[in-house]
Design goal:
The structure holds two protein chains of two kinds. Chain A is of the alpha/beta class. Chain A is built from 18 helices and 20 strands. The two termini of chain B are 16 Å apart. Classes of the chains: A alpha/beta, B alpha/beta.
Chain lengths: 441, 116
């Protein structure tokens, strides 16, 4: 961090170089922040999402703690939170994808002490991809390898032009890489999707497919990778594209020196879910009989990849874990947050940096609203508004240091811009852990 | 009498910016409540930007204003909205053993509410 000349407003402008943006899974760590007091006034090199992230996280003018909507001390909030969690018969701890790895680790400890269900936003994001990886494994690489080698880039059910705006320029399409001296000219971009997204408009080849036909389309490619004969009429009927289109794509895939498939929630949120991603991961494996091919999910939240990693190294499973028996059990569909809430099973919850009241199905939201729960978030959200105990916390990466995992599992250290009067997730969770530990043992 | 469509919610950059600005702000609320429709469908149903429709899925119902999608962004028969309250009201709670409710490519019935 360095200091430069005073700005025209009269305050000193501080420059924070190589700050990491934690809005999306790209975690771009080359951002130059210009900071005046408790406000970031410029975020050089940030995309539209990163700029909005940095420039809209000034100090929130709200109490650090609200209990049932009324201001309270943090200590009172911690006490009430601990009581909610320890008195519950089936507590749920959920979220974790927008906080530091250090805070995630403590949240898992709390789940262990109180014997709760523990789930992350992965379950409504790339949780099905995690299940697919458990089924067939993954052939993968860092984004740096794609940047330097990837000459065929396929986006399947993913729209990084909207969700990860610097994906193209930093990693996948535009960079001049070690083996791709001409950048974009050396790469071919293919997009498979059910609609012509902004990403599709950047592609050399766009393949629009029939909605809910991803599974069938991937399996057509798996068959073509093995030179099997297919019924052209059936392929057209099931995928919405003639066999020749898929044969052309397979020729390009076999001819590539290094192919990379990035997939999004177009696969995991639609019919087939984990079966779709399992097929794509298997296709990637198949392609390595011909050339080098890798496959990666485009992860959404800034540290959702860290959430998977931390929950996995602490419990053995990446999400949807139940610790009620004193040892971890993993069962998506049973111990995942949407299910536990929709079925009305959880009788208390703690939501860490997530907003299920905005994004979950109606039955789950109605049940969450009916039970006591704790929410930690830097901003006011529909979830904090309904919380029994709502903590306003410092924003990770802007006010709080720590570690996050980029979407390719590369850990990145955060360089905060200014301090917040609000406590961090880590401080709140540590205080809750200290409170629940003796009351359980 | 309604007409069948496929609703395909997803993320948008405007929605992402709106999250940072605040979920009770105009940008976010506008993005997650306005339903995008292919211009050909708008024309056929004699709808104009701002007209209201009701969507019904097997799991719920929601009302929303419509706006024309950019010319070739949506195929005929497909609707779009950024993830949020509207899409949450229409998706189901069965995750089919995955933890993930089916949140894309939802079958919905559309009824026009605005008198023309």
């Amino acid at each position: 961090m360095s200091r430069e000349k005073p700005d025209v407003e009269g305050g000193e402008t501080r420059i924070v170089r190589d700050a990491a943006c934690t809005f999306c899974g790209c975690v771009c760590d080359d951002i130059e922040l210009h900071v005046q007091g408790h406000k970031i006034v410029q975020a050089k090199r940030a995309c539209v999402l990163g700029t909005a992230w940095f420039l809209n996280h000034a100090i929130e003018d709200r109490p650090s703690c609200l209990i049932e909507g009324r201001p309270a001390s943090v200590e009172e909030g911690v006490e009430r939170a601990a009581r909610i969690l320890t008195e519950a018969r089936y507590p749920l701890i959920y979220g974790l994808s927008d906080t530091t790895t250090e805070a995630q680790r403590v949240a898992v400890s709390i789940a262990d002490w109180v014997g709760s269900c523990l789930d992350t936003t992965s379950s409504v994001c790339h949780g099905p991809s995690g299940m697919a990886v458990q089924g067939v494994g993954e052939v993968t690489s860092t984004l740096g390898e794609v940047r330097n080698r990837g000459d065929l880039i396929i986006f399947w059910g993913a729209n990084p032009a909207e969700s990860h705006p610097r994906h193209f320029t930093r990693y996948s399409l535009m960079p001049k890489g070690m083996f791709l001296p001409n950048g974009r000219k050396d790469r071919t971009c293919v997009v498979v999707d059910v609609r012509k997204t902004k990403t599709a408009k950047t592609a050399d080849l766009f393949i629009p497919i029939t909605p809910r036909a991803d599974f069938e389309a991937v399996w057509v490619l798996r068959a073509l990778a093995r030179d099997l004969d297919l019924d052209a009429e059936q392929v057209l009927r099931q995928t919405g594209q003639p066999l020749e289109v898929w044969q052309d794509l397979m020729r390009r895939m076999k001819a590539a020196k290094f192919g990379a498939i990035f997939f999004g929630m177009g696969l995991t949120m639609t019919r087939g879910k984990h079966a779709n991603t399992e097929a794509l991961l298997a296709l990637t494996r198949d392609m390595n009989a011909h050339t080098r091919f890798v496959c990666r999910p485009n992860r959404g939240h800034g540290n959702v990849t860290g959430a998977d990693a931390v929950v996995a190294w602490r419990t053995g499973y990446p999400f949807g874990v139940n610790l009620a028996r004193g040892y971890p059990r993993f069962n998506p569909g049973e111990y995942t947050a949407s299910d536990v809430l929709s079925r009305g099973e959880a009788d208390a919850a703690m939501i860490v940096s997530a907003d299920p009241m905005a994004n979950f199905n109606q039955r789950a939201r109605q049940h969450l609203e009916s039970i006591p729960y704790i929410a930690l978030d830097p901003k006011e959200t529909p979830t904090t508004r309904h919380a029994t105990v709502a903590f306003t916390v410092a924003a990770y990466g802007i006010n709080v240091p720590g570690t996050v995992y980029r979407m390719d599992d590369v850990p990145i250290s955060l360089r905060p811009a200014f301090e917040s009067p609000h406590p961090s997730d880590l401080q709140i969770l540590q205080a809750i852990e200290n409170r629940v530990r003796p009351s359980i043992t | 009498m309604g007409e069948s469509f496929i609703l395909n919610p997803a993320r948008t950059a405007q929605q992402g910016c709106g999250i940072s600005e605040g979920k009770f702000g105009d940008k976010y609320l506008q993005e997650v409540t306005v339903l995008r429709m292919a211009p050909d469908d708008m024309h056929r149903l004699r709808l104009a930007d701002g007209d209201r429709v009701r969507l019904t899925s097997a799991f719920g119902t929601a009302e929303a204003p419509v706006a024309a999608a950019k010319t070739d962004e949506l195929p005929v028969g497909m609707l779009f909205v950024a993830y949020g309250d509207l899409s949450s009201r229409l998706m189901g709670d069965d995750t089919h053993g995955t933890g993930m409710p089916t949140s894309k490519c939802l079958d919905v019935t559309l009824e026009v509410l605005t008198d023309r």
